[in-house]
Write a structure and sequence with these properties.
By secondary structure, the protein is an alpha/beta fold. The protein has 16 helices and eleven strands. The structure holds pyridoxal-5'-phosphate (PLP).
Amino acid sequence: MLTSADPRPAPAPPTRTPPALLGRESAAAYRGLIAEVAGRLAERFAAADRPWTGAAPADLAPAVAAVDLDRPLASFEDAFAEVGELYLDDAVWFHHPAYLAHLNCPVALPAVAAETVLAAVNTSVDTWDQSAGGTLIEQRLIEWTAARIGLGPDADGVFTSGGTQSNLHALLLARDEAVERVLRGHRPEDGPRPRGVEVLPRLRLFASPHSHFSVVKAARLLGLGEDAVVTVPADDWFRMHPAALDAALETCRERGLVPAAVVATAGTTDFGSVDPLGPIAEVAAAHGAWLHVDAAYGCGLLVSLEHRGLLDGIEQADSVTVDYHKSFFQPVSSSALLVRDRASLRHVTHHADYLNPAEGAVPNQVDKSLQTTRRFDALKLWMTLRTLGPDAVGAMFDRVCALADQTWDWLATDPRFEVAAPPSQLSTVLFRLAGAGGEEDADEVHRRAREALAASGAGMVAATRVEGRIALKLTLLNPGTGLSDIVPVLEALARHGKRAMEADRRTAAEAAA
Ligand SMILES: *Cc1c(COP(=O)(O)O)cnc(C)c1O
């Protein structure tokens, strides 16, 4: 019974959608606005003559800080002009052929158009009554991806915000399956039945040293702790050793610990190496461990016309991470988690009275997701497949893989460089500037060469470490880039590196004099 006074303010007269919001009255304004923005952006895409200005935080921070967010500008045009100065002038353009740094791709045109649709309609793919056909479209794409993987008739899954979330989600399912298995196998003579949380400290995850850091992060978030991740040695090609995995799982068993999941990587972030999935699946199955395949980078192989064989064995996975926003040329965000057995998704299901009560169930994706309100990212992949088709996407990925081989060959024969890893199975290239000196000197020379390159606008490359030593890294994901775009960037790097080495020698000579 209500006892206190009604807390609501007096009702205002009913209004239609105000013109500031997208609705019936603003449809014409919407059309004009989008056309205007598309026109302005088209100019920028056509004019971008370098991937980046190399702006430092100090170059941009004062202007961003000076904006008074409580005092709006006079018009959208003014606001767009301001964003031009604060952001677009110094944006990093992944479509530029000299952008060679991280796992970012130029985006498929049909997907960009779809992004406009999903933003405007603002569908949330959680319940049927918020998405209708959107739910079915996402489910078809999950089925399509699962079929490409070969997961079988009980497969299911859900789109996520990215590989990090997909991995977390997969390992959550693996954790809860492992706990249930332990509790089911508990016998009276083992002592008092443990509670689920008491099992957690016994769980272990197995991954190669080159697996993505989100695996360790997931272990932490899932209450297992970073130490729960057992590092399984890799071979000289940066692929997990199945025999070493077998030994690690055996040790785990001997210590009375529980192998919750083996994480194989199909396309390591640094090396593009693909763990041998078939042999790993066999070992995981022999030890009763969940097999998760992190194909965030390598998922493009699912549509590859030349290299699909690298994924042989992936069909035996219990769960798979795919990042369409990497090797399917989709705008961020677009990722999915696939599972072999849809029943395993029950570990993230919660029935809320207001949203998805258990009774009268209709198709929905919220029961399978870590998120509630969720973007209709699936529409982008749908439009891409329906416009370009899977073969075109696969051919684009094949092209960047071939380009990485060409680039490796070029570097391997030029005395100014040394390759820092064997040719990649996918599309990364690791190398060093020759003659950069001992460890500290080499770090400094490579850092300065890389920064000078970015500041010059001639290109962008990434840096990482290979067995502790600094290395420069190209991640090739632009099928429009050719060797003739890459060579000038490498030449410029060599020049900047030489300058840094000479400056070092001068300093050393002065110090000695
Ligand atoms: C990029 C990447 C991730 C993380 O994916 P996000 O979409 O950036 O969250 C996970 N695993 C691998 C192998 C990756 O390359």
